[in-house]
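User: For documentation purposes, I need each entry recorded in a consistent format: the amino acid sequence on its own, followed directly by the corresponding structure tokens. There are two entries in this batch. Please keep commentary to a minimum and don't merge the entries.

Assistant: Recorded as requested. Entry 1:
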Amino acid sequence: MVGKQSLLFEKDVYIRCSATVVGNKEAKGPLGEEFDVIVKDDMFGANSWEEAESRIQEMAVDKLLIKSRLNIDDVDYIYAGDLLGQLIATSFGLEKYGKPLFGLYGACSTMGEALCLAAMSINAGYSDNVIALASSHFASAEKQFRYPLEYGNQRPEASTWTVTGSGAYIVSSENPESETGVIIRGVTTGKIVDYGVKDSMNMGACMAPAAADLIETNFKDLGVKGNYYDAIYTGDLGQVGNRILNDLLVERGINIADKLKDCGMIIYEGETKCSGGSGCGCSAVVLSTYIMKKLKSGEYRRVLFVPTGALLSTVSYNEGKSVPGIAHGVILERKEK
């Protein structure tokens, strides 16, 4: 334990392998050629949007096992989640594997939560190989949290676009390929931060305070400054949330605008109809195709990965509640051969 909310691991905890599945819109973005599986049919051959999201998770795990050359019997636990009520995308999507499952809900921070818990399990010696996974689907999220697609509502400038996709990872005690890899050096667990924002169409404003709190806590716990990291990637604040985050950090005496990146801004770069991408799947697919690629190539040596989540539900929103935020930090490092 380091400081109040952080852990630095005694062992090397590897991200042994990763796999991504996305929809057609994501494939048209700047990362299109990097994704493992692209499905042009947003229904994924299913009869409902929710069933489609379950298919995304199933496809991600199947691809992950192929790439890692592992059998599902080699996996000890699965840590996974989605945005839907009672995690129905996860429960129906992963039931066929018959593995011990921890269903997680951290809203759009779920990928960070899954990686944190998976890494803690590996470092403690409770498991050798764990799958960490998160997914989202634009249509299933709109149907649950906002308006069905048939409504055809206009979207405000500050709104984000839920990514249709899933990222799956093997978190392991070893890297058998003996190649340059990525390890999870440590984690900073976030806490709920609520600035009283009630606009569910401005997720960046809801989540930015939690990201600011997490980054400041990580720096204090580890006794480091901004130059400790080559980059800090938030999950899905978008352009609006990214500006708010920088302002909040400056107020705290942390000037790292040149270090702050956002997965939601990257996946739809050049998109003029939204502030950026969001959803559990946003940071999940960008981590694999963009951030880890830069770590493995040597462009980065150390990165702080900070997926962010807006902890609302249709019930809380309709009752006039604010939208609390949470963020989890994962310290990723390049590990030489």
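Entry 2:
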Amino acid sequence: MDPAILGPIDVIFSPIIEPILLIGVVTNLVTRLLAHRSHIRQNKQEKGSLERLKIHEISNGMLIIFSFYYMTLHHHGGMILSLMVLTMVLADIFEFEARLVESRGDMEIELPKGSMLASMLVLIYILYIIILPAGPLDQFLMIFS
């Protein structure tokens, strides 16, 4: 199966997909912290009326799209990355619902620890992909061949 199945899109994005994913995850972490600050501010203004930060939702969507695209280029690594990104977004959805409960219950708004941990795991995996492109086992086997 030819990994270049998307033609012109592959010509543009194939050589730079790993840095795009790295920038996307770092952006997602920053927008997650901005969303948390926004939730704290919204909670101080009016209890129980939190809104999602649009730029964070766009960041989530773009990260999902690019991780699915990475799966067309590198099937195994892309599958792992896509599952990790989807888990991160799912954790983010549940964390937002938890913030709504905290806001309605007149509690202090906590950091979204679960989704931040998931983001950090995605960041570590993307760094692993960038630093060790062939993987440690393949590099070990290449020494002896």
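Summary note for entry 2:
The CA atoms of residues 13 and 20 lie 9 Å apart.
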